[in-house]
Each structure stands twice: as C-alpha cells, then as structure tokens.
Specification:
mainly alpha; Farnesyl Diphosphate Synthase; single chain; globular; two-stranded antiparallel sheet
C-alpha cells in the first residue's frame, strides 16, 4: 500500500471515531471538513518515508503517528484562521471552518482534533508498547511548550522575536516531530533525524512566506498578504525576495544532506528536493526550468 493511501485510510478511520453515536453531529461534520479533502500531507508523508528508511517493522504505529501529526496540523490551521488570529475567510480553496460552521464549533473542532491525535496514538500502542512512549513524547513536544507550534504561534503576541526561532517552532517543530516519530515507530535511533525535519520545516515556512508575499489568493487557496497585514515576521521582509529564495534553497539542501545513511537515503533525499521545488510559486519554478 502506498504512503498516501495509508495516510488517508488512517485519517478516515480516526475521524470516523468522531461520527459515532453520541457525538454532536455538526461537531463530527466540522472535524471531517477540517481534514478532508486532503492537502499535500507533507508531514505524514515525511513520517512514513523516514519509517520506511528505518525498516518500518511496525506499520500500524507508523501509520498512526503520521495521521496524528496531520490531525495536529489540521487543528493548527483551523485555529490560525480564527478571527482572533488571521481572520481568514478561505482555506484550501473553500470557506475556512469558522466561516462554514461558526466560530464556536471551529474552536471545538480544532480542540477535538488535537485530542483525537493522541487518542489515535494510544489505540495503536499495543502493536509496539515499548515504542509508544517515545513516539508520544516526540509528537507532544512538537505542539506544546516550550518549543512546539503553540509556542511558535505565541511569538506573534510578543513585541519582537527572532525569525528563525519563530519559524522553527511554528512550522519546523511539526516537521521535526514527523521525522522523529517515523524513526521511533520503526525502533530506530531518532536523534540523527531531527535536523532533517527542522530544516525541511523551516524551508517550508520560508516558501510559505514567499507565496504569501507574491502569490494571489486564488493560487494559494487562502488569503495572501497575511504576514504584512498582521505585522508578522516574514523571510521576504527580512531578507528580500532574492534572499528568501536563496534561504529556501539552502535549507532544502541542508535537509537532504542531513539524511543519515540508511537503505532509503537516496529516495528520501529525492523526495526532499522534489518538495522544495513544489513549494515554490509557479513563476519561479518556470523560470528555473
């Protein structure tokens, strides 16, 4: 079974837990709306790619870790779009969750997706109970404090912040978690994989900064110009467009170079380079071609 099929199957099974008898129907519908139809699923694909590179001898745990990370990502998007943060009307080319379902259900659906991520992991722990604790720690650390995506979002409430710290926490932490959880679910040493995730995550955020600065709402499927509108740190503002593009290339190269020796090293390095190219706005990839 290919990685995307595994991810979608596990996400579907997880979200169906919310649709069981007794759950408020509109809450279950809002949770499904937040997760489907799928986006790029970059983080869970990274998790499964690392697991495969490390042997992937406990696939159900790797699948659950990958899906849990995607649920946390989807929850963060729901909360990002709320009026108290970006007040974004669209996401992935459709009305954002609070526009479609109202702000109270958007808050609750985001909260429920966070909890569901850990419910999913807990249910999968019996396939490799000795590995569950480290996987839970890796995933939990990526979303909480002091260095997870909650902390990254909170830097927007401070009078000043370091751009690299902000991007590593708001975006890089979940990528680092994906790499770590992939290795840990396969019973492999995880420390050597952290830099892969951190650099790829920061590259992803730099690419997002570039798109936010130069792309249209239609191309993004969400409002553009949000960083400037909200006075947030942005790589284009800090380094200029050329500097941001060079930073993206450097971070992607560092992520690929950080992949440790393993049977899937070349394939994973190719995936990282492919993702870095995909993240660029089309006008830059066309120029490079």
């Amino acid at each position: 079974m290919d990685a995307v099929t595994r991810i979608e199957r596990t996400l579907t099974e997880a979200v169906e837990l919310a649709a069981q008898r007794g759950c408020p129907p509109r809450l279950a519908e809002a949770m499904r709306y937040a997760v489907f139809p799928r986006g790029a699923r970059v983080r869970p694909r990274l998790c499964l790619a690392v697991a495969a590179a490390c042997g992937d001898d406990r696939s159900p745990l790797a699948d659950s870790a990958a899906a849990a990370i995607e649920l946390l990502h989807c929850a963060s998007l729901v909360h990002d779009d709320l009026p108290c943060f970006d007040d974004a009307a669209t996401r992935r080319g459709k009305p954002s969750l609070h526009v479609a379902f109202g702000e109270p259900l958007a808050v609750l659906a985001g909260d429920a997706l966070i909890v569901l991520a850990f419910q999913l992991l807990a249910r999968s722990g019996r396939v490799a109970p000795e590995r569950l604790g480290p996987v839970l720690m890796a995933v939990g650390d990526s979303v909480g404090v002091p260095h997870g995506i909650v902390a990254g979002q909170a830097w927007e409430c401070e009078p000043s912040t370091d751009l690299s710290v902000y991007q590593q926490e708001k975006t890089g932490s979940l990528f680092a978690s994906a790499a770590l959880a992939g290795a840990l679910s396969a019973g492999a040493p995880a420390a050597t994989w952290q830099l892969v995730g951190e650099r790829l995550g920061e590259a992803y955020q730099v690419a997002d900064d570039i798109s936010d600065a130069v792309a249209s709402d239609e191309a993004l499927g969400k409002p553009a110009g949000q960083d400037a509108a909200h006075g947030r740190p942005n790589a284009v503002e800090t380094f200029g467009l050329g500097g941001a593009l060079r930073r993206l290339e450097r971070l992607a190269a560092e992520a690929a170079a950080a992949v440790p020796p393993c049977p899937g090293q070349a394939a994973l390095q190719g995936l990282i380079r492919q993702e870095a190219e995909r993240l660029l706005p089309k006008r830059f990839t066309a120029a490079a071609a």
